[in-house]
Amino acid sequence: MRKIISFMHVSLDGFVAGPNGEMDWIQVDDAIFDYATEATRTADLALYGRTTYQMMDDYWPTAADKPGATRHDKEHSNWYNKVDKIVLSKSMAGQHIPKVTVVSKDLRPQISKVKEMPGGDIVIFGSPGAVQSLMKENLVDQIWLFVNPVLLGSGVPMFRDIDHRKKLTLLADARFPSGVMSLKYEVSH
To answer: What is the Cα–Cα distance from 134 to 128, expressed in whole angstroms?
Structure first.
């Protein structure tokens, strides 16, 4: 069965964005990109919430073609362009976009069916609302947190409305020169 792997940058006090959605506090460098690429090598499907999908789709399709594109820009742009995508969105219901499936209702049966199909892993970059919805349905298999050395005080929480205890098992951790810590967890179902 395919795994759903969530990648999320988080502040030390548990926020994934500031009060106005700002993410300028997130530290990303080549070491973090290389570490995260480990999962995209085994993934052939990306899953996003609407906001993150629109942000990603505004940047990644042409990122490799921009002057000064980094190695990571080129690698991730190529990956983004070749993988299929699922977008969890009620407002995008009925839209037909090449290589994109919009899921606007019946989340559990639709995503469970995708997980049972042959293929690689399914990755979610960001998309806190989508991750929260998938967590409520026990559909997330791994959570890779990138804990940034910053306290925001308020903002968008990583976890909201968790209706019952979720047991996590630490699979790996990593420390990066920027001070970011990665914690890779398996979610018990």
So the answer is: 10
Nearest of 65, 67, 7, 4 to residue 35 by alpha carbon:
7
* Tokens linked to 8: 């999320």
What tens digit of pLDDT does each residue of 79-114 get? 999 999 999 999 988 888 999 999 999 999 999 999
Contacts (Cβ under 8 Å, ≥6 apart) of 119: 2, 44, 45
Whether the pLDDT of residue 162 is over 90: the answer is: no
Q: What type of residue is 2?
A: R
For the chain, the first-to-last Cα distance in angstroms comes to: 14
Q: Is the Cβ–Cβ distance between 161 and 9 less than 8 Å?
A: no
Name the domain count of the chain.
1
CATH of the domain at 159: 3.40.430.10
Q: Name the residue range of residue 53's domain.
A: 4-187
